[in-house]
Input
Amino acid sequence: MSKKHAIRLTVNGRQYEAEVEPRVTLVDFLRHQLGLTGTHVGCEHGVCGACTVMVNGRAVRSCLMLAVQADGAEVVTIEGLSEDGRLHPIQEAFAEAHGLQCGFCTPGFVMSAYELLTRESEVDEGTIKEVLGGVLCRCTGYKAIYESVQLAARKMGKMPA
Amino acid sequence: MVSQAEWHLPRSLEELPISSPRYIGKPVRKVEAPPLLTGRAQFADDLDLPGMLHCAILRSPYGHARIKRIDVSAALELPGVVAVVTGQDMQQWVRPMGGIPSGWGTHCLAVDKVRFVGEPIAAVAAVDRHTAEDALDLIEVEFEPLPAVVNALEAKEEGAPLLYEDKGTNVMFHRLFTWGDAAKAFQEADHVLTEQFRWHRLGANPIETFGVIAQWDPVENAVTCWGSFQAPSFSAMGIAGALGLPLSKVKLVPMAHGGSFGGKGNPRGALIAAVLSRKAGGRPVKWIEDRLEYLMAGGGQAWERFYEASIAVKNDGTILGIRIKLVDDIGASGENSGAISAIKPLAAFTGCYAIPAAQYEVTMVATNKNPQSAYRGMGPPAHYVVLEGMVDIAARHLGLDPAEMRRRNFIPPDRFPYTIPSGNEYDSGNYPALLDRLLEMSSYQELRRQQEELRRQGRLVGLGLVSAVEPGAFNMNVYTILGVPAGTAVPEGATVALDPFGSVRVTVGFALEGQGQYTFVTQLMADYFCVTPDQVKVTCTDTLSAPVHFGPGGSRLAVALTGAVLGAAEALRRKLETAASYLLGCEPGQVEMMDGMLRVKGQPERRMSWQEVVGAMSARPDLFPPGMDLSTQATYVWVPPDRNMPDEQGRAKSYLTAAAACHLALVEVDPETGKVDVLKYWVVDDCGTRLNPATVAGMTQGGVAQGIGAALMEEYVYDADGQLLTTTFMDYLLPTIYEVPPVESAEMVTPSPFTPLGVKGMGEGPMISAPAAVICAVNDALAPLGVRVTDVPASPARVWQAIAQARGQG
Amino acid sequence: MKPAPFEYIRCSSLDEAIRALSDLGEEAKLLAGGQSLVPMLNMRLVRPKALVDINGVQSLSYIREEDGWLAIGSLTRQRDIEKSPLVKAAHPLLHEATLHIGHPQIRNRGTIGGSIAHAFPSAEYPAVVVAVDGRIKVVGPSGERTVPARQFFTGIMSTALDVGEVIAEVQVPRLAQDSGWGFVEFTRRHGDFAIAGAIAIVQQDGPVVRNAEVTVFGVGPVPVVCQAASQALIGEQHGDTAVARAAEAVERDLQEVEVISDVHASADYRRHLARVMVKRALLQALERARSARP
Output
């Protein structure tokens, strides 16, 4: 074991202070040290995208970032999207458009869509596909996921109805 | 519990005790969605128990080697390590796993020999996964490498290196089935066409790998396992058998799965974690298979096949017979259920066609590779590449359009139920109508015209049209051929409980996996008892308390679970009717339930709600005669009716339902690179009554995506020493959104006469048809060049090879 | 699949990083975006004693134009390069190449310096800097030096970087106004590493090709500048025949190259794909050159 480092970060609006071993990835830290198990691990080598979270306003693979690197960062995970039990419009759209089956990759898609729909003022088929292209789903065949994000974009005024 | 023979379950939505369905049959939102969308659903790795240890597994670097010595002393000394197990411990505490074919099982940790790269050799339990992996580095193993055999055709020959010396052969199973007068069919044919096919290894690869937490109880001598078990009660039997425990001492708690597709059935992980927990004095031990482990040695490798097929046809296109010879590379043991995949085609051997005679020769061979597992479709996806491929070859030879060739051979709609030569009975279907609908929806004639034009411009555009039958409501009777100890039923049970406040609680034995079963149960119960969906709750319970069940698999739950919950609901209805007769003051038999009300027949104003009746049954036993059953819950175990054991040619009524589909793929082959793009895709399917059309549409799109992956991208590649070369998701290629076009689909409904509500299983169908459709399309594209690709996947390299061969460069 | 233990050193300046790297020697690894390094750590394919993290060195993140060159700080995220109006205008080839790197979620973290230091044979940025004859500015214990990109890549995942040296800046010359460029890749899936890729930059005088630069990547250990292919085109009338001849000439350029063979493509197939990619890149480039002319 190597020396632990003290880190401070904000996750879903809440401040955390923790000691982490450098080799602990951000996803393992979120899941096992903070108990935020909504972010999932699918491959641990950056291909499947299930572990996507927001770090300082950008969607990133949390299996490819060390927890110690998140010192001072602002992190948003799937748990941070709904407020008072009310689904975020993106989550709402996924439920409405049947954009999930087993739901394991879903946080990766939702967080990827979240970056797109919070950063861009307008999106189109190409930009939606581009971010969805970075996450693997084995159940849905993507059509309903695309339709969910399209629906969310419309709900959020980022795409003409 | 009520036996299945006592009454007739509703055969259609019209027979339900309601005026009209509000939920069932409609695209209702999934009840499973909110917890999954908010990160609250609990998967195996989300569970954290007090004192929990973490397991890492040391795996074989060799395809085939003798283990001379294992030294774990340094690993045990590493701070944080609590227990280490090796094959020696396993010999002491665990019996070898059963195998299919029977007799081909092995130990969960290698004893004396390793037989594939990735085979578990030793395992460590430590305070965290990192430390456990550190400890693996400290285990010393001395190997004596042995020659590996990785090609099934070589492995089955005499003189090949033997995986199991005591067996004297690598051939695990050999059988020739003959159905009808095949010899005569081939004699009388105007044309006999022959081709070879090769289906390479691929597999399930759900985004969540397998995970388990095992806790040994040293006092009770019992074990509890939380994990992503697809068929919990059957897994419990396997674990109990291996650990030598009665079933009462094995509790499996199924957790939500991040997909399964058959690819989580490997029993080693649970056994290893259980023994580690035992060695660690009963501390819980978690093992989460990582992706590298999954790819190399998990339940993710299926079907590796060499086929030789002949088709006998007349000049008018009539198919007289088909012969298929299969050599199936099962891998290093029968510990997973992969071998079943070679036998499942018996349930739909001749597809949608009235082919009178067939022959099937099956040879299963052991090689130094990861043992084959189950995967969605379970064999028929490969079988249909061959069958549909041969139909296309015959059509091309005779100058017939593939659609016309199929139409001439379809089983006529008036001949159902129809028994196919390999023994199964198809319940119902209308294949010409499916085809017509597909041709119309896709503007097939126009597509063919455009294809002609594009071909003139030198573009390689192809259409693949296939039709296939999906055996549904999985049965194990045919697998007794392989020595599987089974009978004619795979049961599914459910308990339905009512309370006076209007809630309907349903208990099942399987966890969330993605197919939306909790949703259709909710729809059905909300309709049946006239409540809102949020008054219905479906809960999964552990194997010690769950009703008898199997769970999802083999396209069965739409049928089996509908049967189970309807059976329980019907049992409750009868109880309520009897109870209400006392409360309403009339004869039993005069009360009927309708729209949630118990009313006297012919006097609809004399009525009360079921909630009132349940209230009285719960709180006022004094209103009923002594001895009356006043419980307001019922359990029903559904089993498929009218199944039998296979005869000497393997013929049996096996799978109860025969959903059917016609698929059409439009592809373009890049003539310079060999890369295939699927441009458009159409499906018309008939799975009888649709419980939730949105679920069916989702399964269809997802199955087509897996089919495209299978046809074009996914492949496990081994080198000559048995080293796996595709060890990451960079090399084992799952399709992304860019490789899968949106499917345009339409439905037809021919209800099953044999199932509750007329439902048919459909979960595997899209994956069963799609590889064949894509491969047929690729070969249609290549047809002007006079070459074919019969290797699946049709990777760019293989397609380019075929094109180069056509151009004389290959 | 968890990393072996390592020490972690966070740096807030380039000097600090260089000092740490020099002190620790070959057993230390520099951590930038981590999109290639962390998977290798997770798989225990690399087991450094220490990681030197430069993500805190803000001064390494910039995109500027200087004397007809684009100068990009090594820590600049690929996503920022993709979104940069300056890059899009001054170097559309670099912009296009960036779009081919993985996925947005990868580019959000991945850096240009990381991509170049990692030197994967099929990576886009090494190919671009070689194709445009760019330069890599490195800083080390003995000071600063600028290495021509064409001398920087020395083999599969190996570079001219010495122990203790850090890439500080990547410099690419602005494309000439009248040049046309082409960038193509052959991948199994969208976002995958290229099995073969090609970059072409051409200039024309009327119908005659005045200048051509062809580079292939993903084929050999390092990006290959294809002199024979370029020569086959220079001075020719642009058109399908000349392009086909140039594509054939790639065979000569690859003669001395140890062509990669893996599960996706044999060496022969890769050679073939290289020719096809060169042809397609040239067709793109010629088309752009035509519309670029006044």
User: Anything to note?
Assistant: The two ends of chain A are 55 Å apart (CA to CA).
